[in-house]
Amino acid sequence: MTNFDPNMLKVYLVGGTQDVGNAPDRFLHDVETALQAGVTAFQYREKDGSQLSKTEITNMAVKLRKLTQRYHVPYFIDDDEELALQVGADGVHVGQKDQQIEKVIQRAAGKLLIGYSCNTAAEIAKANHLAAVDYVGTGPVFPTNSKGDADPAIGTEQLAQLNTASHHPMVAIGGISHNNLAAVLNTGVAGVAVISMILGSQDISQGPSGRCGLPILTK
To answer: How far apart (Å, rounded) are the C-alpha atoms in residues 117 and 97?
Structure first.
């Protein structure tokens, strides 16, 4: 298991085949391009319209493990610690609408890094008492189409308040673009988690210095 470092949250790519028109080969290509361009972590999230079978998801998870190892990028799997353990992922991410975080901690603590979605003050307060949690993901900061069951946008002011209250490093997610990136980073979060900003880009390979590729996170 990789040791947790808040710097891995700086440019955190989240995605699955549903984010590239259910095209597995394109997804693998785009993820590899993003890894080459400098993303600092990757979360495999196969939901919301995915057409892959369970076996196909497992096979994809294995291929993504090999890619992330090649580029030395921490690899998380969304809401499936059993699959994460099976393929040798570095961590698992658990949402509020997924299985109970306590059960995941019981199975995965000490074996996987654990991320936890927390979007309210009450959820942050609960996470503060969970020592096994390594980071929290908070949002959506802005309205987003990438997640069908997303909660209402919280905005940067509330994001800043939640970040101050959190005992864990926070990665912001939801509707983040080049136009609002600076405002998000000014809240003090450890980084940004993005989907369409990278997987929807016309030129992922432009990397951290490109307008269409990865955000500039050199602070």
So the answer is: 9
In the set 146, 147, 166, 201, the catalytic residue is 147
Catalytic residue check, 70:
no
Contacts (Cβ under 8 Å, ≥6 apart) of 103: none
Q: Which long-range contacts (CB under 8 A, 24 or more apart) does 149-158 make?
A: 149/48, 149/97, 150/174, 151/119, 154/119, 156/180, 156/183, 156/184, 156/186, 156/187
CA 120/CA 162 separation, integer angstroms = 7
Specify the pTM: 0.92
DSSP string, 169-189: -EEEESS--TTTHHHHHTTT-
Contacts (Cβ under 8 Å, ≥6 apart) of 127: 101, 116, 118, 133, 136, 166, 167, 168
CB of 192 closer than 8 Å to CB of 185: yes
Residue 206: pLDDT band with limits 50, 70, 90: low
Q: Which residue has the higher pLDDT, 196 or 138?
A: 138
pLDDT reported for residue 148: 61
Alpha-carbon span 61 to 72, nearest angstrom: 16
45, 65, 146, 201: the catalytic one is: 45
